[in-house]
Design brief:
The structure holds two protein chains of two kinds.
Chain A (H helix, E strand, L loop, with lengths): L4 E12 L2 E13 L4 E6 L5 H8 L7 E6 L2 E2 L5 H11 E4 L11 H10 L8 H11 L15 H13 L5 E5 L7 H18 L2 E5 L3 H4 L4 E6 L2 E7 L6 H4 L11
Parallel strand pairs in A: 3-8, 3-9, 6-7, 7-8
Antiparallel strand pairs in A: 1-2, 1-4, 4-5, 9-10
Helix pairs in contact in A: 3-4, 3-5, 4-5, 5-6
Chain B lengths: L1 H16 L1 H39 L3 E6 L3 E2 L2 E2 L10 H10 L3 E16 L2 E10 L1 H6 L4 E4 L4 H6 L3 E4 L1 H8 L8 E4 L2 E9 L14 E5 H8 L12 E6 L5 H15 L10 E5 H44 L1 H9 L4 H37 L8 H27 L3 H6 L2
Parallel strand pairs in B: 5-10, 7-9
Antiparallel strand pairs in B: 1-11, 1-12, 2-3, 4-5, 4-8, 4-11, 6-9, 7-10, 8-9
Classes of the chains: A alpha/beta, B alpha+beta.
Amino acid sequence: MSSLIDIRDLRKTYLLGEIVVNALQGVTLSIERGSFVAIMGESGSGKSTLLNLLGCLDRPTSGRYLLGGTAVETMDRDELAEIRNREIGFVFQSFNLLPRMDALENVELPLLYKVSDTPNEDELGMQALADVGLVGREHNFPAQLSGGQQQRVAIARALINKPEILLADEPTGALDSHNGAEIMNIFRALNQEQGITIVMVTHSDEIATYAGRIIRFRDGLIVADAAVTKRAGDHLAAIAPVDAEVTV
Amino acid sequence: MKQLLSSMRIAFRALRMNKLRSALTMLGIVIGVASVIATVAIGSGATQRIQQQIASIGSNIILVIPGSMSSSGVRLGTGNAVTLSEADARELMVQCPDIALAAPMVRGGAQVVNGNNNWATGILGVTPDYLTIRELTVTQGSEFAQQDVDSANKVAVLGQTPVDNLFDGADPIGQTIRIKNVPFTVVGVLMRKGQSSSGQDQDDVILLPISTAKRKVIGAKQANADAVDAIMMQAKSGAQIPAAQEEATALLRQRHHLQANDDNDFSIRNLEELFAAQEASSQIMAVMLAAVASVSLVVGGIGIMNIMLISVQERTREIGLRQALGAKTRDILTQFLVEAITLSVAGGFIGILIGVGASFLISKLAGWATSVGPGAVLLAVFFSALVGVGFGYYPARKAAYLDPIEALRYD
């Protein structure tokens, strides 16, 4: 079976005014279904650029990107939007919930842009909220929720269309360590119990150890790529053991 | 459909969040639509009034009046000569194939008395044909007959105004009134006609047989007992008016023994032309008023564009998020277009209400005729929606083509 994510010699060049920025300088990488990958690196190392490309928010300057066997680097705006809607869930550092919508409406937002109609939206949204432990909070507005709760709403939103991949950009960056650990435990459970592939950018070594594999970036290139041997939260792993630890 | 409903919900929510801003934005459209509605109402009211007047005058009417008379080189005003006669009227009717009817008339004024009431009014001495031409009908009693003219009977047909002023609500038929001390029997009352275009009360008149009027009330012209003040003719159809005018001119020149190089000693006026010109000018006025008013609609549209641009800017992050969650170009475009259209159409509806109200007030206070047709309302709704789409498109497009990464990073 081919990898879920398969990128070959991916390059991305920006033009910042008159300065050419080589954000990615030829990255080759494959990520298997069901894996949990942490991407680390300094600011400007290219990790966020990679995440944007993986999330089909951007197109590479050159190189190949096969997502589930489909070449996405040549798709247009709207085709990419459909891929994002169907295949990818995003979790952001700053949650990015819409302040004028309650938790349930925020969670149901991706259903609005689905090609096919969903008959039981509210049922689905309530279930997604229940999955992240937010029963009874569905009509709270983001301002009425704690940071950890907001991020859990965001996770529920990311999962409502049942994507294969969850992309997280510093998901615990705005949270205290307790809430951060809670979010990581949810990630871990999603990965191990539901087999959702997670790619997460983080600055924190501690958070990174929740993943099964850590990729380090510097200057637009991968400098290290290794499996995690001593994983955080392994007490959870006892419930559902890691079935595939990937090494490259 | 689901997306449209959701877009509308999002739009309403966004507009509710900024109530004052939305209200001020709408105000531009409200004023624009209200002024378009009000000016169109005034314009079409004026046009309708002129059309009513044309109808109240009668159709296919040609009026012949005596020409100006020169007295020792001093030219007097039109109508001073006594060149037209009852015989002219008879011959016009007999000899001109395109003329259906020709009615001679004499005009004057007199004090009319009934018991304790008296009233100064216009006296018209006419023949029954006059009533036919002017399409006058009696609501009470009857018209006088040709026989009344032939025998110079002392009978009168009253307009509504003398009836109101002389009879205090009593039935006037069969009553005797005194005109210049001559007793006349009221045989009929004319149907109300209202004001003329110049504001004249068309009901302030008493019709008498022309023969009686000349002998008893107005007095015959000294120069020519047969003379009349005017001849009112009716062409057989609207298309025959020019031919009828030519025939009448030729016949009258011949009857008045005018040489080839003599000026006409009468003038012929075609009332249709006169009113058509008035109608055209009032329509031009209406169009110009509406054009000026629609400028404010454009200004309102620019206000919408301005606010939408600000709204797009403020919600850049939201747009980025929606794009990340799978919103296509069209989804974002629709969302912001719906918002702009909601603003403009809501403003349009309020504008219609205010415009209709203003038209009503104008006709009450200024006494101008106004008429708000469904066409004007539909047009206003259509145009306000058009303004929404037109001025909302650019901001919406700007939103739809934002780069998702930059939009997400925006703060």
